[in-house]
Amino acid sequence: MGLSAFLASKLSGSKKEQGPIAASIYDFKINGLDGKEIDFSKYKGKKILIVNTASKCGKTPQYAGLEKLHEQFGSKVNVLGFPANNFLWQEPGSSEEIAAFCERNYGVQFQMFEKVSVKGNDQHPLYQWLEAKTGKKPDWNFAKYLISEDGTQVTFFSSSVQPLEQTLVDKILN
Length: 174
Fold this sequence. Notes:
Radius of gyration: 15 Å
CATH class: Alpha Beta
Number of strands: 7
Strand content: 15-25%
Order of helices and strands: HEEEHEHEHEEH
CATH topology: Glutaredoxin
Strand order of the largest sheet: 5-4-3-6-7
Largest sheet: 5 strands, mixed
CATH superfamily: Glutaredoxin
Structural class: alpha/beta
């Protein structure tokens, strides 16, 4: 679905009635795992990699690759993790439990956010925006959206794409 069709469905009262979609990625303000609000305008000028995460998934080891990506390419990209419980209830924990799991098992230092819904009737507005920009919903845990430095271009990478896979790294570096 194109952006105009998506916006039209929003305005016509479709099932996901959460207000108008944000004009820019930089319009979002979302709480981190610590409960403190993070204004996305602070990410202007660098690419952003948004990933829906889960602690009890076969793809959970991607946390290690995301952390390496953050360490190696942090000057070029902000890695942002969004825990989600949409796929077989694989992220049941509280913010405190998720933070402890990420630190203990993977040494995660990149920014993690509060748990959100990435699909369905309660889809978070950020994921509505990402879907409107790409026409793609997360296919599973660890789906990735890479947003350009100016916030205008969004590229979707399926959950099967590893964080350090060359196609993703090349897109970050170019």
